[in-house]
Write a structure and sequence with these properties.
Elements: H1 7-11, H2 22-34, H3 54-58, H4 67-76, H5 89-92, E1 109-110, E2 116-117, E3 135-138, H6 150-164, E4 177-180, H7 192-201, H8 211-220, H9 224-231, H10 239-256, H11 266-271, H12 279-289, E5 318-319, E6 360-361, H13 383-392, H14 442-453
Antiparallel strand pairs: 1-2, 3-4, 5-6
Helix pairs in contact: 4-10, 7-10, 8-10, 12-14, 13-14
Length: about 475
């Protein structure tokens, strides 16, 4: 019944589309800076045309929250709403960790006694306000000021065709139909309101009980009067409505509070001409964009959009990467259990679309350096581990995957064998084979990590920094 009220989220104006939004102002600034910089190795943006202080755009003041969002803030931080009475939304989505997991465990503990392990790593809630709804359709990754190169387009199309031809799936004529959008690792919901609702009532997460139980907790809370003022004196006589309004309030908090989308990283300051990259960061930026080396920008788009909004470092699409199985997740002790991402088990409407089994959402790389665990199963614990695996996954698979009884390496062991064909083996750096030269050297991986650290929010521009316009990228004619 709660789903009937989710449409309210769609009726509210998105903050990202309002003319007074400071984030939009940052995006417009970014678009000005990047205009004409079509190639990754092209000139660094010229900042001489700025006619107002970029710092005010990088760190715009927080506007007062609406009464709805203020109520959502209280709900977000209230552990009394959970079954254990000890877990709030902020308990898993730590504001000090960019609203990501607070610790290095692969999964969080939840449930009525706060001792039930989850199934997936906690994703960040930061920068979700522009996430499009889930769909399957033509690859729209080029609908950005940063278009993929022809090589990248051909490579990705070949990968889609390979996936669509998996053994137990009827062939589909179009090779570029891809899952995209949605929230959670598998895209099973479309709005922040639905995203808040899921963990709240999941018995292995917050375990808030049924709607009647939850509404009673709301009625007994110290902010109950705020509910009555916003939704009417009789709101608690309609438990389903009270619950839906609570989830709606949390969604408004995540939309309105700047801490969920601050755009305050060194990268943002660099775009505004108020910071410069170190040599390592600049080389890492080049390798990040190079389709023959890191190729990171093929999925983690790093240019402002055509709508003049700042880059979120994701194309919102899904990939099967074949991350190693994580023995630290208790559910994985059952050899018959597999997390198949888009086609289950958390979502059930895509189970027949086996060409997508093993695909998970490409997350934003903003604040990636602040994460203690990586990938949907939290199998890696540092950016170095992630880059090392990206580069050497197929060059030396024995380093990352177990061996079977005959001593053979079982690559992509976190997927059933018949779905391993879906794993991306065409896009660099996954196009390598044993004996090939790695796409990145150890030094280049370190440089990319240095660049990724510039995506962490909370950077303060320093007066002594030279403007970005004084730097050159390889290939610049300036």
């Amino acid at each position: 019944m709660r789903i009937a009220f989710f449409e309210r989220t769609q009726r509210m104006p998105s903050l990202s589309k309002t003319g007074s939004d400071p984030v939009l102002a940052v995006g417009m600034l970014c678009a000005v800076l990047w205009s004409g910089a079509g190639a990754a190795s092209g000139p660094v943006p010229d900042t001489q045309e700025l006619n107002r202080d970029p710092v005010a755009l990088i760190h715009p003041p927080q506007r007062p929250l609406s009464a709805m969002a203020e109520l959502g803030r209280k709900l977000f931080h209230d552990p009394r709403l959970s079954g254990s009475g000890r877990m709030s939304c902020a308990g898993c989505h730590d504001p000090e960790r960019a609203y990501g997991p607070p610790g290095a465990d692969a999964v969080m503990l939840g449930g009525p006694d706060l001792n039930t392990p989850g199934l997936r790593a906690v994703p960040s809630l930061r920068y979700l306000y522009r996430q499009p709804p889930f769909s399957i359709g033509p690859d729209a990754s080029g609908d950005n000021d940063q278009k993929p190169t022809l090589t990248q387009q051909a490579s990705r199309a070949a990968g889609r065709l390979r996936a669509l031809k998996s053994a137990d799936t009827p062939q589909v004529a179009a090779a570029n139909l891809v899952p995209q959008g949605g929230l959670f690792w598998d895209g099973r919901v479309d709005t922040l309101q639905q995203q808040a609702d899921g963990p709240m009532f999941n018995p292995i997460e917050m375990d808030a009980g049924d709607t009647t139980t939850f509404a009673a907790k709301l009625q007994g809370a110290d902010y109950a009067e705020g509910f009555r003022r916003l939704f009417g004196a009789g709101i608690f006589r309609k438990p389903d409505m009270a619950v839906s309004e609570a989830m709606f309030a949390i969604a408004r908090y995540e939309e309105e509070d700047q801490s969920f989308h601050p755009f305050s990283s060194k990268f943002d300051a660099w775009l505004a001409g108020r910071a410069h990259f170190t040599p390592a960061e600049l080389k890492g930026y080049q390798a990040f964009n190079d389709p023959k080396r890191g190729n990171c920008a093929a999925c983690h788009l790093d240019r402002p959009t055509r709508d003049r909004l700042p880059p979120l470092f994701t194309d919102f699409q899904y990939e099967a990467l074949g991350a190693p199985r994580n023995a630290a997740i208790p559910a994985n002790r059952d050899p018959a259990y597999f997390d198949l991402g888009v086609c289950g088990p958390a979502r059930t409407d895509m189970q027949g679309q086996t060409q997508y089994c093993g695909m998970f959402l490409t997350p934003s790389l903003r604040n990636a350096a602040m994460r203690p665990v990586f990938f949907h199963n939290g199998v890696f614990h540092s950016l170095h581990e992630v880059l090392d695996w990206y580069v050497n996954r197929d060059l030396d698979p024995a380093r990352f995957y177990p061996r079977d009884a005959d001593g053979r390496t079982v690559a992509y062991d976190d997927l059933p064998e018949n779905y391993r064909v879906n794993v991306d083996k065409t896009d660099a750096p996954f196009d390598r084979h044993p004996g090939d030269a790695p796409a990145l050297s150890p030094a280049e991986m370190d440089d990319i990590i240095a660049f990724l650290k510039t995506l962490s929010d909370g950077y303060t521009p320093k007066p002594e920094h030279a403007p970005a316009s004084t730097q050159k990228v390889a290939g610049s004619k300036r």
